[in-house]
Each structure stands twice: as structure tokens, then as C-alpha cells.
Amino acid sequence: MDQASSLRKMVNKSAARIKKENPARRQTSGRPPRVISVTSGKGGVGKTNIVGNLAMALTRLGHRVLVMDADLGLANIDIIFGVHPTHNIGHVINGEKSLSEIIMEGPQGIRIIPAGSGFVNLTRLSEGQKLSLLSEFEALDDVLDFLLIDTSAGISENVLYFNLAADDCIIIATSEPTSITDAYAMMKVMALEYGMKHFKLLVNMVADEREAKSVYMNLSQASDRFLNGVVIEYVGYIPSDEYVKKAVRKRKPVLELYPSTAASKHITKLAKSMLEWSRRTDTDGNLKFFLKRYIEYRAVG
Ligand SMILES: Nc1ncnc2c1ncn2[C@@H]1O[C@H](COP(=O)(O)OP(=O)(O)OP(=O)(O)O)[C@@H](O)[C@H]1O
Ligand SMILES: [Mg+2]
């Protein structure tokens, strides 16, 4: 049996397994999952916390969520879910594991894909391997409503490609001046070099809405002046909340430990509003096309 057909066989087996474990119970509209990247210019602004808690809020609202830990260096998602991945996408690419075998289960059935450094090898796949991986991703369409991507901070190529390939890109900024200038620098590169025109802004660790809106005004005024045609959509804020830190120390989402604290309420509000976000095209959210876009961006990068 050649490598491509043995891979295909493996894919079919794991697709069947995923489907069996997750009987089709599409709670949303029957559409493919929505792919949302969460990113930032500066590190440490709360991406991992926001992804983990959003995953939990969406799960509690009855949606099926997969979190992709796309930081290729340091694993992040164990910070919030207390899971310790032993395998990552690199093992899928090597043919050692199927995609479904590396997907871990976090609290309340949230699924987690540890990306690891293997992602950078995607462009080196043979056609057969690429097709296999694409169909493994395609199999997930039926069992997910959201794919949330926790990127690393900064303007690395990898982060850019994830942001470009996703349906929505949420930029996290705080009111710290360096976080604002780094968020702007990131949008500038994505807009001017890659033609990305639409960003969602979520402001974290602020005292109130007024402070959050001033971060938004700062960024949108700069973008109106210097980034032609770019639209920054303010999608809300998460207050600075000591209970977030307490939850992090226990390696659990704040929403699980302290559901009535301010940060948890804001996360739930954001999750509810995400259900209303409009889709751009019919193929939005289709995981095969998401991965294809990512691979293509990498290849031409
Ligand atoms: N709303 C908040 N209130 C208080 N503390 C917060 C809040 N959000 C995040 N933090 C704290 O900020 C720190 C950094 O958060 P987190 O690890 O989620 O950031 P990150 O952007 O993922 O960082 P990195 O760029 O290193 O991946 C954590 O210790 C967390 O407790
Ligand atoms: Mg992080």
C-alpha cells in the first residue's frame, strides 16, 4: 500500500471515530463551524484566558468548541485547562497519529488541538498527505460549531497566516500604551501587506467601558488616518478582575470557578454576541478551506 492510500485509510477510520463519538447534534444552523483567531501585538494581554473562557461560555450556551493552541513555541492552553498534551499536529503530519488521536478533551467536553511546531511543516506535505489532513479537518465540520485559535503574540508569519485564514480575527489590547501601539503595528502589517481590512477589537484588563472605548478610539483614529479602508469593530471589553488571576493559579477558567464575577459576566456577554456576528461567505467556517487557506498563505508567504 502506498503512503497516500494508507493515510487515506487512517483518515477514514478517524473520521468515523469522531462521528461515532459525536453523534450529529448540530445545535446551530447546520452551517460549518466558525473559525475565530484571537491575537495581539503585545504578549501577556490575556489571549489564552479569553480563548479558554470563551470556549467555556460557548459550551455552556450549547455549542461545540475546539480550541487550537497555535503558539508554536510555548504551549499555552494548559495554563487554563490544566491539560498536558503529549502529541501535536506534528505527529499527524508525520503519520504517527490521526487528528482525532491528538485532540484532547478539556472541561465540559471542550476539545483542544495542541498545534506545536509541526504546523510549520505543512507546506512540506506531499499531495497525498495534504489531502488526508484536509479531509481530517473536513470531518470536524459536522461535530463543531466554533474553532477558536489562540495565537502567539506578535507579527510572526505563523500568526499572520492563522489570522488571514480565520473567518474573524479578534485583536486583544489593553490600555497600556505599548499594547495599543503593538496592536496598531499588527493591523498595519496585515492591512498593508496582506490586504486584510476587517478586525474585531476586544479590550482586556480595563476598569470600565470608558477606558475600553478610549483604547478603541485611539486605534480607530490612527487607522482612519493611515490605513485606508480598514474597519475596526469594537466588540466589547473584559474588566480587570482579581478572580481571573486566582483562577489562573488553579489552572481553571474563571467562568468555571467564579461564574458571577465581573470578568465571567463579560465573557458570557461576548459569547452571546458572537452568535449574532454575520458571516461573510458561504464557505466561512468550513475547516477544510480554513486549512487550505493557511497552507496556501504559508506556501506563498
Ligand atoms: N481580565 C483580567 N483581569 C485580571 N488579570 C487578567 C485578565 N486577563 C488576563 N489576566 C492575567 O494576565 C496574565 C496573562 O494572561 P494570558 O496568559 O491569557 O495572556 P496571553 O496574551 O495569552 O499571553 P502570551 O502572549 O504570553 O501567550 C495572566 O496571568 C492572567 O491572569
Ligand atoms: Mg497565551
What does this structure look like?
With 301 residues, the chain is α/β, with parallel strands linked by helices. It has a single domain, classed as 3-Layer(aba) Sandwich (Rossmann fold), CATH 3.40.50. The protein is 48% helix and 15% strand. It is built from 13 helices and eight strands. The protein has helices at residues 3-21, 47-60, 78-81, 89-93, 99-102, 127-140, 157-165, 177-194, 209-226, 242-249, 254-257, 262-274, 287-300; strands at residues 34-39, 65-69, 104-105, 111-114, 146-150, 168-173, 198-206, 231-239.
Give a quick set of tags describing it.
301 residues; alpha/beta; Rossmann fold; eight-stranded mixed β-sheet; 13 helices; binds adenosine-5'-triphosphate; binds magnesium ion
Secondary structure elements and their pairing?
Blueprint: H1 3-21, E1 34-39, H2 47-60, E2 65-69, H3 78-81, H4 89-93, H5 99-102, E3 104-105, E4 111-114, H6 127-140, E5 146-150, H7 157-165, E6 168-173, H8 177-194, E7 198-206, H9 209-226, E8 231-239, H10 242-249, H11 254-257, H12 262-274, H13 287-300
Parallel strand pairs: 1-5, 1-6, 2-4, 2-5, 6-7, 7-8
Antiparallel strand pairs: 3-4
Residues 40, 43-49, 76, 79, 153, 204-205, 238, 240-241, 244-245, 248, 263 line the site of adenosine-5'-triphosphate.
